[in-house]
């Protein structure tokens, strides 16, 4: 089943008490937990690996929710098995990260996961037109650098993505997403809304989950 | 001040409740918390980045303990500032990971941290002989692959490292370390003992910390 609705990114959570943070957003209704994997090569920071997926997998699955892994790494095809084994339900790879995009998406499906293809702000929507995936992730900021604002050019790109892929696949947005930008993206065709700071960076993550869900009719 | 004694590696801890796990080993007397950073390039897995250091820094420092970062990554010189800023007290880079070993060690010192140089099992002790560091890390298994046993050839290498660097710098061992191997390494000149599974993989991590400390006269 396709991913849908708000996807809190644990990148912005308190890693000393990750289980508790995940529990809070699950209780608030989130059914997708987004895991941002960075390797210090495709993007400058190093963030987290499959051991983090493994640590939260049972908790997320017991809540009937999904673990959505976003690989911002070079050679993503080499990491697919490890993340699938750790408990990922969906795995997204960047079109810019590998010359073997079709192969990587096939490997994700063969590992039993939903497949996603991501594109950066500088990559045209057409970059995804030769592959088939369960989800397209349209980056709405440049991944790996903090403190960026939502790029307005994303709205036209989302509309173009929908023209290319039709109504069925999920379309995810990630970067600068709060309730206002999420609503604008939903109107342009997005169906999955990654929110990090807008959830875990607030005093009340549960209220933030509910506000973004409401704004996107989730 | 040089690092000393047991250094529990959080790689083997439960990442859903990392603060609690760190609290347990600090209460048992550990004064060094070892952070294994892997990027999926220098070694196959991706593990954790500076956000994890940041999450535990206050807790570790309030216990008058140190955060010891082991960079198993390519181009380590590019990550030193991020880890120093997050709260690392010592940073170790691999001799095999960069053509700029001297530069990397200088950058660590300039960032205000203790500097460490690590060598893999296939690298001779002499690889560290042209640099000066506060610590030498002698890998006692090959990093990045699980389930390996302590390499007996490490004992002679530790003795050779002590001949090369004298008595002052710390010498760390990492891989397959439990109380018996730790005692053998201590007798060969090691002063810092990284233990992951032997601590967090047991029913009683606190008892494991104490047993390894006792075995090494810590």
Q: Largest chain-chain contact?
A: A-B, 33 and 33 residues
* Cα shape of chain A: globular
Q: Which bin fits the share of residues in helices of chain A?
A: 25-40%
Helix run count of chain A: 8
What's the alpha carbon Rg of chain A, rounded to whole Å?
15 Å
CATH class of chain A: Alpha Beta
Low-confidence stretches of chain A: none
CATH homology-level superfamily of chain A:
Aldolase class I
Question: Strand pairing plus helix content of chain A: what structural class?
Answer: alpha/beta
Strand content of chain A: 15-25%
What is the succession of H and E elements of chain A?
Answer: EHEHEHEHEEHEHEHH
**Tally of strands of chain A:** 8
How many structural domains can be distinguished in the coordinates of chain A? 1
Oligomer: homodimer
CATH overall fold name of chain A? TIM Barrel
Strand order of the largest sheet of chain A: 1-8-7-6-5-4-3-2
Amino- and carboxy-terminal Cα gap of chain A:
16 Å
Question: What's the overall average pLDDT of chain A, rounded?
Answer: 97
């Amino acid at each position: 089943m396709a991913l849908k609705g708000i996807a809190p990114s644990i990148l912005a959570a308190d890693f000393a008490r990750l289980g508790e943070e995940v529990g809070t957003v699950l209780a608030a209704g989130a059914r997708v937990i987004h895991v941002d994997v960075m390797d210090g090569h495709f993007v400058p920071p190093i963030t987290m690996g499959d051991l983090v997926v493994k640590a939260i997998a049972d908790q997320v699955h017991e809540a009937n929710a999904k673990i959505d892994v976003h690989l911002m790494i070079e050679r993503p095809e080499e990491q697919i098995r490890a993340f699938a084994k750790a408990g990922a339900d969906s795995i997204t790879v960047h079109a810019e990260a590998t010359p073997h995009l079709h192969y990587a998406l096939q490997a994700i499906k063969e590992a039993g996961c939903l497949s996603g293809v991501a594109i950066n702000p500088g990559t045209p929507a057409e970059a995804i037109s030769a592959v088939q995936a369960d989800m397209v992730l349209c980056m709405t900021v440049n991944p790996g650098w903090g403190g960026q604002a939502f790029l307005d050019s994303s709205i036209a790109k989302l509309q173009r993505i929908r023209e290319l892929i039709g109504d069925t696949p999920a379309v995810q947005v990630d970067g600068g997403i709060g309730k206002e930008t999420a609503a604008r993206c939903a109107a342009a065709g997005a169906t999955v809304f990654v929110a990090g700071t807008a959830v875990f960076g607030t005093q009340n993550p549960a209220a933030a989950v509910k506000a973004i869900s409401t704004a996107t009719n989730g």
